[in-house]
Amino acid sequence: MIVALSSFAGVGWQLLDNNAVPLANGKIFTYEAGTTTSAATYTTSAGNIPHDNPIRLDAAGRLPSGQMWIEQDSSYKFVLTTASDVLIATYDNIPNNGNVTWSVENFTGDGSTLIFTLTGTPKTENNTWVYINGVYQNKNTYSISGTSLIFSEAPPITSIIEVTYF
What we know:
- There is one protein chain.
- By secondary structure, the chain is mainly beta.
- It has 2 domains: 1-99, Tailspike Protein, Chain (Beta Complex); 103-165.
- 0% of the residues lie in helices and 36% in strands.
- A 4-stranded antiparallel sheet has the order 3-2-5-6, with no helix packed on it. It has a 4-stranded antiparallel sheet with strand order 7-13-9-10, with no helix packed on it.
């Protein structure tokens, strides 16, 4: 399993109540995004020591381990409460795209080629950015199928095609 630092309460965060007072002994409940199904979080980057759920904050409103690591490519819901379970806030659909490896590839258009082969596979078409001669190309001008970048119209002769993706 690969974990990445959480964008919610990642390292050394001090969580506060609605009066900006440290949330002494508060709780963070962790769920799969959009659900009430518990989701694991971890105390270390190895992902081998889970937090309790709920995570109980210390007297200063911080995670006892100082860190929250979550599963890569997962989305979470975090519910923050006081020590006596009074709701402070709910944060839902918090993505974790940690440890993302970005790729940039360049091609040259010849006026007739519609399909260019990438060396990697983008996670989704939404994780691609395509430029022809420095001009961003709207998503409706191309599609992604595995490692294939497929244009609806061939890029012009000698055009520089830059593809950034993860």
